[in-house]
């Protein structure tokens, strides 16, 4: 089962690397903080994947690394929440109008379809391993799906109706969800076994 946890973490790392690259590039081109924030969240999810790989590396008792890994993942959620909240406030206060990003719309739709199955697979492995770190990392994939939905709504509203403010508003949703997930990961809520 540890081998499966490592495989799923590596699979997530590969996808999030692609996702981050596309989202950040498309966000910079369109001036979309929601897309840049989504890409930054993907980078944070990569960090969580590396933490899970560290937690299960073959040296010593990996159970000793469970609690620190669990807490490090919580901190990654808070980092993305803080960054995205600050960056979302700037266009709302300054009236910055992001461009339409069809690349971002496509990326968010694909991510919305791929993250729930990955999160479910990680939840099954976490249950079998009694690992809150794996469960928290899997929850990040589920949060990614929620963020994809928020991003799709924000980018879609901008594209369809010209509602420029929907982009930073979607980013604020991303920040709020990430902050809450950080709190839950830190305390071990959501069915995780906290050490």
Structure description:
The chain is mainly alpha-helical. It has a single domain, classed as Alpha-lytic protease prodomain-like, CATH 1.20.1510. Helices cover 83% and strands 0% of the residues. It is built from six helices and no strands. The chain has helices at 2-30, 33-55, 66-94, 102-129, 132-161, 166-187. Helix 1 (2-30) packs antiparallel against helix 2 (33-55), helix 1 packs antiparallel against helix 4 (102-129) and helix 3 packs antiparallel against helix 6. The longest helix is centred in the last third of the chain and has 30 residues, at 132-161. It starts with a helix and ends in an 8-residue tail after the last helix.
Within the CATH hierarchy, at the fold level, what is the topology? Alpha-lytic protease prodomain-like
CATH domain class:
Mainly Alpha
Summing up helix and strand content along with how strands pair, one would put the structural category as mainly alpha
Q: Write the CATH architecture name.
A: Up-down Bundle
Strand content: under 5%
Describe the largest sheet. none
Terminal-residue CA separation: 19 Å
Write down the overall geometry. elongated
Count of DSSP strands: 0
The whole-number mean of residue pLDDT values reads 84
Counted up, domains total: 1
């Amino acid at each position: 089962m540890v081998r499966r946890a490592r495989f799923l973490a590596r699979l997530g790392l590969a996808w999030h690397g692609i996702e981050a690259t596309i989202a950040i590039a498309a966000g910079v081109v369109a001036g979309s903080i929601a897309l840049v924030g989504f890409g930054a969240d993907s980078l944070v999810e990569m960090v969580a994947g590396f933490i899970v790989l560290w937690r299960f590396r073959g040296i010593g008792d990996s159970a000793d690394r469970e609690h620190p890994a669990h807490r490090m993942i919580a901190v990654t959620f808070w980092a993305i929440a803080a960054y995205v909240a600050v960056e979302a406030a700037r266009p709302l206060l300054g009236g910055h109008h992001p461009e339409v990003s069809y690349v971002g719309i496509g990326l968010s739709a694909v991510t919305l379809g791929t993250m729930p199955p990955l999160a479910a697979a990680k939840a099954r492995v976490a249950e079998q391993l009694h690992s809150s770190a794996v469960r928290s990392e899997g929850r990040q994939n589920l949060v990614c799906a929620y963020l994809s939905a928020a991003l799709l709504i924000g980018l879609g509203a901008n594209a369809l109706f010209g509602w420029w403010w929907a982009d930073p508003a979607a980013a604020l949703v991303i920040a709020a969800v990430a902050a809450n997930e950080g709190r839950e990961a830190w305390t071990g809520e959501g069915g995780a076994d906290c050490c």
